[in-house]
Write a structure and sequence with these properties.
The chain is mainly α. Helix content is 78%, strand content 0%. Helix 1 (5-29) runs antiparallel to helix 2. 0% of the residues are buried.
């Protein structure tokens, strides 16, 4: 869960960006182009989910 409004806004902005990318693909290239874009987006999201976060030194 987001810990504050700034973090929530960042998440919502990222989601809106993804939707806009898919819409552009549908308008310019049709369903097959949109499906290819969705696969690219899924791979990008998976990389972010499973990356190692840097250790914080305190």
């Amino acid at each position: 869960m987001p810990s504050n409004d700034k973090e929530l806004n960042a998440i919502l902005f990222d989601q809106l960006t993804l939707v806009e990318r898919i819409e552009r693909c549908l308008k310019s290239g049709g369903q097959s182009t949109a499906e290819a874009e969705i696969e690219i987006l899924k791979n990008e999201i998976n990389r972010k989910l499973y990356q190692q976060l840097p250790l914080k030194s305190e």
